Structure formats: C-alpha cells, structure tokens
Amino acid sequence: MAKFEVREVFRLPQRGELVIAGKITEGTVQVGMSAYVWLDGGLYWDLPVRSIEFLDRVSVGESLISLVCRENTEYDAELCSELCPIGSIIDVTDASSAV
Known about the structure:
The longest helix has 8 residues, at 76-83. The protein is globular and about 40 Å long. Helices cover 8% and strands 55% of the residues. Strands 1-2-5-4-3-6 form a 6-stranded antiparallel β-barrel. By secondary structure, the chain is mainly beta. It comes from Undibacterium cyanobacteriorum. This is Translation elongation factor EFTu-like domain-containing protein. InterPro entries: Transl_B-barrel_sf (IPR009000).
C-alpha cells in the first residue's frame, strides 16, 4: 500500500479522465492500483489508476505525480476535490490488498 498527498484535483474532459496530482509520501504507486477516497460511514470510492504522469508546475517550481483515473461523470473531479482537500492523504493499493 502507498500513501499519496493530494495537491490538486482536476479533469481532462477531452480524455474523459480525472487527475489527482500530488506527492507519494510512502510506498510505490503503479498503473492498475486504485486510489481510495473515503466517504461517510466507512465507505470508499475506488478509483482505478489508468496511468501515472508527471505534472510540472513551472510557475511555482514544483513537480507532482498525477494519478490519472477514468471519469464517470463530469462532476467526478469536483466531488473528488471536495472529498480530498489539498494536503489530505489517500491510500493507493492494488486489488490483492484492498482496503
């Protein structure tokens, strides 16, 4: 299992994907793993990672890792952003060691 610090969430509408950008704080993240966003009542939102990309924020001199996930609706990124504010830590794990 890996831990991932969220720095930004946005969507790529042309690709039908949402992006969770941030830093890996523990472990290793690979394509095929899932990001787990916790909901109320002990439930979670399982977001399979389709690709991992680098995001260079030149204006602030910061490089981030982007977990690129499939978008189900155009509101997924907005919801994910509300559930994972900047600085929050999410779990990223493979299916065999699901949360």
